[in-house]
Each structure stands twice: as structure tokens, then as C-alpha cells.
Amino acid sequence: DIFLRELISNASDACDKRRYKSLTNKSYVSSDELNIFISIDKKASTISIKDNGIGMSKEELINSLGTIAKSGTKAFLEGITKKKNDDNNLSLIGQFGVGFYSAFMVSDKVQVLSKSINSNESWLWESDGQSSFNISSASTDKPGTEIILFIKKEEKEYLETFRIENIIKKYSDHIPYPVKMNDSENKDKQVSLNSASALWMRAKKDITSDQYKEFFNHLGGLGDPWHILHNRTEGLVSFTSLLYIPEMKPFDLFNPERKTSIKLYTNRVFITDDCEDILPSYLRFIKGIVDSEDVDLNVSREMMQTNTALNKISKAVVNKVISELKKILNNDREKFEKFFNEFGAAFKEGIYEDFERKKSLLSISLFKSSIGDKYTTLDEYVARMKDKQDEIYYISGENIEQVLSSPQLEGFKSRGLEVIFMIDPVDEFWLPATPDHENKPFKSITKGSVDISKFPPLDDKKAKKSKDDPKDVEIENLIKEMKSCLKDNVKDIKISNVLTDSPVCLVADEAAMDMHLEKLMRQHKRLDEETKKILEINNKHIVIKSLAKLVASSKNKNIINDVSYLLFDQARIVEGENPLDIKKFTERMSLILTKSLEINK
Ligand code: ADP
């Protein structure tokens, strides 16, 4: 049924555009009321959807509809029509507004007859949805568009008037223009099938959740709305806003070209559908409309940015969205977590983009941490901080699995210290600009040194000194020896106070960029060279202890060199880097394996 909803939606947008144009140019005014007319021709097996909106020129027909020839869309449509009996598949179509192309789900052929209000010519566009399209000159004299669907044999049910009437009543009631058909009893009479009133102007109590959802889909929303904000604000600037936060993210949420899209109306007259000035880009997933009697009808794109009424509306709308999100976080945690799972990564862009609201955005942001797999807020983290802990420990990385396997986490885990996981790329950008949260500084555990010696280990057996521990001087000599092997491949070598199970790990120098950020920058070609890291060694680990003894006995220098490089490469590998020299790495690895197998023979 979706095809009809999509085509009526397009027709309604076309009427919106014509109504707006005609405000400034009398010649665009339609002598008839703007409307959408549906007719069925059973003999010819066609349904026609006709509007007297803005129409399309030849170029617009080619550019807007011509892309049907693109194989991607065609393949997608073929896929969904073939598996038509699968309910899941059908609901998928409903979720992804495939727009005009959905016409081909029920038609063998589609004709589009259109005349733009800007042109004297009219055109007939025709396609079977299989290959390309044809376009030829036509002779319509009134502006508008008529879409004629040649219904497939197996879809004949759509040629029944009652079937079409039901679909329109169900999906298109909110369309602000009359959707009409010929009366089935009296062919000369037309009947309107919808309420034709702007949904957002109706009282909340008079709108059913189905009607809200239909309007959400009309705006191009996917799936169901996760939350609806429908408000009337009176004051210096008065306006009505109907905003939807979707329940799932669109596939192109992180496409740099994706912009916020709020439809702007004044007194129900559509002004624009790409008003970027009401919502900031970090809220680009929100769909909706704003209707204000205080916005000038002639507001142009350029003027929008400086329009004071719009600025006031924007401020009020964004504050409303954030306070509503805060309320949901406090009252319905489960619901809020679903939202954050979908949109958190985009939402957190606001922490560095929206200086004014930075604090409130941070306070309602959620994070995963080293304790359990639940989300936590920073306030909750701070409340759980250990006695004498005055920093918010965090580790950044690509994903949970990667950070969980980080050796740098070991000492924190063994001391019961919680570490926040910063695993969205955006975290690397707001963190450097955000020194603290509620006066607790953020501290990366993979950069510089973190002194956690004041926190006792939970299991102090592991931490106790044992008889075979190398003497301090032996470790010092080991470090000296390793430095002379690894040379300037490392910035420094230090004894770690965070490792418990791994022999080595890398950390960034205190003054350098954090390791994960550096990696992101290199991936995006913003940085050419790797910076030198500090190699931390675990002087309680058997490999390090044995190596220290080997250095002390000054036997076999070669093996010390090989093991130093293998340890360094191991530390690189856990950071997701390649070994320094893959060929040498495999040679050293084989050598050590051979030796260890010989010993055990
Ligand atoms: P969408 O509506 O999401 O942009 P569609 O595939 O449904 O995608 O339509 C593509 C474009 O074709 C529209 O954006 C519009 O410019 C144009 N269009 C479609 N139907 C009409 C119509 N009835 N009148 C005028 N233009 C139309």
C-alpha cells in the first residue's frame, strides 16, 4: 500500500511549493483549489494520481525520476518485489521511503505527465522500471503532475475504489490538501477522503498515535517515532513545533552531506524543507516541522542565518529537545539507552560544537565502561569513584573488544578502578577541548603516566614481591640494554605500574597526541608519520624477569635483541599496528619457537 502514500506525499509537497511561490508571484496562483485527484480506470488497468502543484520541467523529470535506470535502485526494488509475500520485507519497504520508485512495485509501466509552473512546455516521462526511460513532448496546458500507473496483473486489487479509499484514509489523512476521488455512486460528484488540515495545528488530544506516525512517515521518517515533541510556544516569538526523534538511525547519518531538515511553515504555508538553521547538525536525525506566525514569508536562504525570529525559535526548540531527553534519561532509562545506542555518536558532536550547551550535553551522554556492559553517565561514574580518586580514567579505541583487550587496563581492573570506554571517533574530538567534568579532570590511561599506586590491588598476592624478582639494578640494566637494541624506535622505556598480566605495552608521551587519535589521523591522511611511543615493561612478568637475568649473566646478546624486538612488536600488535618489520618479526618468531621446542625435546 506504501506506493500510494509515497505518491500522494510527493503531490502534497508539490502543492506546498506552488502555494509558496504564488505568494510572491501572482501568475503562479492556481485558479482551482490546490488538490490531489485520484482516478481509477478499470478497463485500462490504470490508477492516476494528479496534482496541480509546482510540476516538473524536462530537466527536473530527468534528474528527479531519471535515476530509475541506476542499477542499485532497480536491484533493490526487484529484491523487495520478488519476496513480496514476506511480511518483514513489506514492512522494510514501508520503513525506507523509496519514494517515487515504489510506483514500480505495483506497475508494469509508469507514465508521468508534467508541466512546470515556470515553463510553457509539458512532458511525458515513461518507464517500465527495468531499463531506462523515455521522455517526449506533451500537450498539457495546466501546471501540475499526473502519475499514471499501469497496474500489474497480480495487483488488480488496487483497481477497486474501496481499496484505494481505505489506503488514503489510513495513510494520508494528515495531507493538508484535499485528496479527492469521483463519488462511486454519482460520477459527476467528487468526494474528499482526508481531513486536509495541518496535523500540527490540531490539538494533541485529537491526534491518534497512528496519525502521528503517518505524518512522521510523510516527513520521510524510518520505522516508528521513538519520541514525539509537539508543542506550542507563546512569547516574543510564537510557534508550533512537531518534532520526531526516530527509533533507528538512517544509513547515511554520518554522510558529511547529510544536513538537518526541518520543514518551516508560517501560518500553515510551507516556506522551505531544508531549513538548517533551526536544529544544529548534531541533532540532524530529528524530523519535523516548525510553524511560526512571526517568521517573514519572504525569508530567503541568505536571510535565515541572521533572522532573529528564527534564532529565537532555534534556541527554544533545541533547549526543549535537550530538556526532554534529560527527562527521559531520568524517568525511563531503558528507553533513553535505546536512543543513545542509535544516535549517541552523532549527539556527542554537540559537546564540541555547541559551546553553550556543552555541559548539559555531556551530563546526558552515556558511556560503556570497564565494569559490566551497561551504560553509565559521567555523574554515575563520579559517584562510584574510589576514595582518593580525583580523575576520570578513560581509554579510547575502536570498539569494546579492542579496548577490553588493552594491556593498559590490567592494573585498573586489578585495583577495581573503573575506566570509561571512549569508542566513538567523535570522542577523540571533544575530549581535548574538555578538560574536566564537574571539576574531575579526564585522564587517558594510554598517555603519559598514571599513578595508581595509591590504590591497593584487590588480590595482593599477585603484587607481592617474590624471591626470584630481579634486583632494581638488574631491571635498570635490562632497560639500558633494550634501549640500545630498540634505539629510536621507542621514545623511552619505563617500568609500568599498570601492567599485571602482559609483559609490555605502549603509551603515548604525556605531551603527544593520544594513541587512538593519532591512528585516526593517520587513517584519514591528516598525519603522515607515527610518533614514537613509550614502551612500558612489567617487571613482575616472567619474560621480563628472565630477560633481566639473561642481561645480568651477559650471555647471548643476540637473543636479547630478538626478544626486545618481539616484545616491542607484541605491544604494537595489541594496539592494532603492524610489527615494525614483518619479515624480521616472522624470522625472530620462528627462531624463538625453534629454540623453545628444542629445549622441551
Ligand atoms: P523524495 O520525495 O524523497 O525527494 P522521490 O523519489 O519520491 O523522492 O521524488 C524525487 C523528486 O521528484 C522529488 O524530490 C520532487 O522534486 C520530484 N517529484 C516527485 N513527484 C512530484 C510531483 N508530483 N510534483 C512535482 N515534483 C515531483
Question: Can you tag this structure with a few keywords?
Answer:
alpha+beta, 22 strands, binds adenosine-5'-diphosphate, elongated, 601 residues, 6-stranded mixed sheet
How many β strands by DSSP? 22
Instruction: Figure out the total of helices.
Output: 21
Major sheet size, sense and barrel closure: 8 strands, mixed
Quickly give the structural class. Answer: alpha+beta
Give the spatial strand order of the biggest sheet: 5-4-3-6-2-1-7-8
Which segments are poorly predicted (pLDDT under 50) over 5 or more consecutive residues? Answer: 69-74, 87-97
Q: Report the helical percentage.
A: 25-40%
- Ions and ligands: adenosine-5'-diphosphate
DSSP strand (E) fraction? 15-25%
Q: Looking at the chains present, what oligomeric state does this protein adopt?
A: single chain
Q: What overall geometry do the principal axes of the alpha carbons give?
A: elongated
- The whole-number mean of residue pLDDT values reads 89
- What is the terminal-to-terminal distance? 74 Å
Provide the gyration radius in Å. Answer: 33 Å
Description:
This protein has 601 residues and is α+β, with helices and mostly antiparallel strands. It has 21 helices and 22 strands. Strands 5-4-3-6-2-1-7-8 form an eight-stranded mixed beta sheet, covered by helices on one side. A six-stranded mixed beta sheet has the order 15-14-17-16-19-18. Adenosine-5'-diphosphate is lined by residues 6, 10-11, 14, 51, 53-56, 64-65, 99-100, 145, 220.
